[in-house]
Amino acid sequence: MTDVLRDTLSGPSEPGDVEAQYRALIDACGLTLRRDRRFVRIRGDRRAEMLNGLVTNEVLGLADAGRHAMLLTAKGRVLTDMRVFPEADALLLEVPDAGLTNLLATFKRYLPPIYATFENVSESLAQIGLYGPQAAAAAVELTGGEPPAGTHGCREMDLDGGPALIVRERRLPVDGIELTVLSAGLGVLAERALAACEALGGRPAGLEALDVLRVEAGLPAYGRDMDERVLAQETGLEDAISHDKGCYLGQEVVARIHFRGHVNRTLRGLEFDDETADAGAALRDDDKQVGQVTSSVESPDLGPIGLGYVRREVEPGARLGWSAGDREGEATVRALPFRLGDL
């Protein structure tokens, strides 16, 4: 892997470069190293059944697609979210770095080894992502075949002489193809992926640029927009919750909120007037605190925007003040997502 590619994929970028990377993601194709993700593999004859009894979504019978799910405390608060993908003889869990410790601790406590075993395989696996309107074309050049269709569509394949999992990511405003491979083969794959991107007008793009698209899509990130203080339904991640499946950790609280109640706050978009607010900034309606900022980015297309939890009675369109230390400003509450993709 060249020094330029390694530096762009592995470290923070200068603001001007983030804008150039963002433009590649929006207009062509960006190559990103997913340093923010970790991997856990579950094996055993009853692996799906055991995992299904712990997480918020149905993970039985997965075949050609994965599924987004959350792991909760008994009180319905978020320990982490994850994506669960089927492999020939295992389930591969893709977990945010910030949520890995919680997941491993919960599995150690609740996953019976007689039926299913788990292993943290983060050191042996790595993931790159191709994002943008040309992502699928770049993936065809890279893999020699059409990528899976549909959100979380997945397929195991041989790539450059080693095993790989190819996944379709459609939750962002642009198309996405993600490849999880053995860490030992990452360098060669990244160089070939970059060549495919550049041939289509793309370039490397760091996590900072990709984070702008995440906020535009209204996707909360574990460790930033959700943690053990946040109820599952406050996040807005309804795609990660099944209200028809059997018991799991925290289900009683989730069901009570869904069928008989409501949450008092919810994740909203925030459009800042002049500059982005710091994460943690208080949101106020006159003198009353009604929420808190959790993420903020400078979008080259949409300006200073962010995510935050706002009391449910505060409607989109409302004007709020924000303050953090000696900084303050104003913001408009917006419904999510800020931006829909043409997928």
Automatic annotation (TrEMBL):
Top-level taxon of the source organism: Bacteria
Annotated GO MF terms: transferase activity
Classification via PANTHER family: TRANSFERASE CAF17, MITOCHONDRIAL-RELATED
Keywords: Transferase, Transit peptide
Gene3D superfamilies: Probable tRNA modification gtpase trme, domain 1
Every GCVT N-terminal domain range: 23-245
Protein name: Aminomethyl transferase family protein
Binding site for substrate: 178
Source organism of this protein record: Candidatus Kutchimonas denitrificans
Any GO BP annotation: iron-sulfur cluster assembly
UniProt lineage: Bacteria, Pseudomonadati, Gemmatimonadota, Gemmatimonadia, Candidatus Palauibacterales
Domain Aminomethyltransferase C-terminal, chain residue ranges per copy: 265-338
